[in-house]
Write a structure and sequence with these properties.
CATH architecture of chain B: Orthogonal Bundle
Number of strands of chain B: 0
Distance between the termini of chain B: 28 Å
Order of helices and strands of chain B: HHHHHHHHHHHHHH
Helix content of chain B: over 70%
Radius of gyration of chain B: 21 Å
Strand content of chain B: under 5%
Distance between the termini of chain A: 37 Å
CATH architecture of chain A: Orthogonal Bundle
Oligomer: heterodimer
Number of domains of chain A: 1
CATH class of chain A: Mainly Alpha
Number of helices of chain B: 14
Number of strands of chain A: 0
Chain lengths: 370, 357
Amino acid sequence: MSGLDPRSPGLDPRADPGTGTRRPGAGTRRPGLGARRPGLGRLRPRSRRAAATASLALVAVVVAVVALGLGDYPLSPPEVLRALLGGDGPASTIVLQWRLPRVLAALVFGAALGASGAVFQSLTRNPLGSPDVIGFSTGAYTGAIVVIVSGAASAVGTALGALVGGLATALVVYLLAWRKGVHGLRLIIVGIAVTALLHSVNSWLLLRAQAEVALSASFWGAGSLALVGWSELLPAAVLIALLTVLVAGLARPLRQLELGDDAARAHGLRAEGTRLALVVVAVALTAVVTASTGPIIFVALAAPQLARRVVRSAGVPLLGSALVGGLLLLVADVVAQHVTTTPVPVGLVTLVIGGAYLISLLVAESRRTR
Amino acid sequence: MATTTPPGVVRAPRAAARTRRRVAGLVVAVVLLAVALLLSLAVGARPVALADVVRVLGGLLPGGGDAAGVAPADVAAVLDLRLPRTAAALVAGAGLGVAGAVVQAVTRNPLADPGILGVTAGSAFAVSIAVGFAGVTAASGWIWFSFVGAALAAVTVSLVGGAGRSGGSPARLTLSGIALGAVLSGITSSIVLADPRRFDAVRAWEVGSLADRGWGPVATVAPFIVVGIVLALLVSRPLDAVALGDDHASSVGVSVPLVRVAALVVVTLLAGGATAVVGPIAFLGLMVAHAARGVVGASQPWTIGLSALLGPVLLLLADVLGRVVAPPGELAAGLVTAAIGAPVLIVVARRLAGGPR
């Protein structure tokens, strides 16, 4: 995967894409490797990072409890907790059977997307280099549709189709964007073009499919958690857990790759092989989620960047990104279910949030370069 | 342009060759348009022979032949179903094609397109507000919303993407437009999903489909598109000057702010009008403007003129293709143009010297 070589000059995120000039002091900063800031962060970064990560986890739990109480049959947080801890009666059925799978799915899938985004942004050293922006999610969806339409729709088959679709799209986008290196913005524009193309292909596939197959697949097309029950969640969660173990094992090599291939080799790392393994694992994370929910975009883009700001860590924080991703998807799903008059697919909510976030990034950047 | 001309030849023959090439391009475009129009009337779930189409059309003219020998169902398919949607594609395609040429010239951005820059998404958003909250159900009512949405989106995207000392790089302007388009289309879809029944009339429209258009929207919008194209031709000479740089334009006496405002009005009229008829369609203006410029060279009047012809050709062919790829269903024309246009976007993005910066 030489296409992912971060040494290629076109990929340097420090060069400001807006003007081609470098920001003052840019040589010491990069999106994946934030500068230490003065103040608290300088004194005890490690314990402060741990505290920030722990509080993220706490917030996620609190929001999850609140979300479990929302719905046509509202429950207070104490009632939710009692139901979770083995209470009887209707409340426990509602919480455990109806709402818990969806809330857990939001947390687990969001975490997977966040971690996947963190790996990609770290590898490409570009805050925009996340799997959804570059079209992997849509490609994974295409792969899943092909499997569903061909009639071999088992959970494993769909996930496998999504994985192959995602990897193939990743390869195609990188090859098309390659021109003496992969420049960040070109990568994104190529990714967006490929996404638009695949979107048409997906619609075409669905049009040709049987009506009932098409209906279930198209509802899922905007990215929705509405169809996720325990039987859908459990296999996906097991796969994600396995992949998470792999990511955790690769976390240290990832940090070393951030320092550059030479430094990584000096530490005895096989740079190319490690990078390939990371890409496959990260695409697999996105693919598993897409196979279960349809493409949910922008979570993988926004979560690592938000996590970096919250945790103020040196690199893109893997654990923090996963937590923020879970939190983000959970909040988006609450909005999708309860804020609008009719439930909408959560993918639309993340689309709006993520697009607004992207605009704010561009505005902030233009202020800096003015 | 006449690249085959040997060096040393005086200018006049080269200019003549260029003019020949431009006129030839225009003639070919007119022929293509005629073919596309006929195909659009003939192809579909109920295919009608081309000869019958011509006879049916002839029957419309006073004293011009008769359609007696044609099956009544064929006549109905051509006149009641396909003629309105063909007219819609003609009007919207011309609007989007010219809007693409103008927006590329004024932003000096080869990646620009009313759809990619989020202008059509702004239109669609405003229309969905009109239908969802203001209770507007006729095109004559929502077209005003469409214009306002297009104008606001165009201003917003140029503020976000064009800010900064460099006046906005192509890639960044593009990215801003895509982000804005994503936000607006997400909200639009949510509004539509929140009250599906009210949106029955516009659901097909939301994905850029030409089916079941009727005469209402076309008749309402056509005058605005005509005005927009005339206005585009009027500012085409000053746009030539602006394309060479703001300083150059000022030095030859062109008021750059005035041209920008005029271009904004043109894009608003054309993209807003086209979106009011066919829904948000991306990539069409991009492809058409590049194709037109490739044929006629760096001249805005010619590019705009040719775009006005090629835009409908492309939209009509996309619509025809959408009718036949997945029978018995139809793939929306907007999805077909996206599939054809995406590779063009990739090629243009790759061709930008040194990568988009």
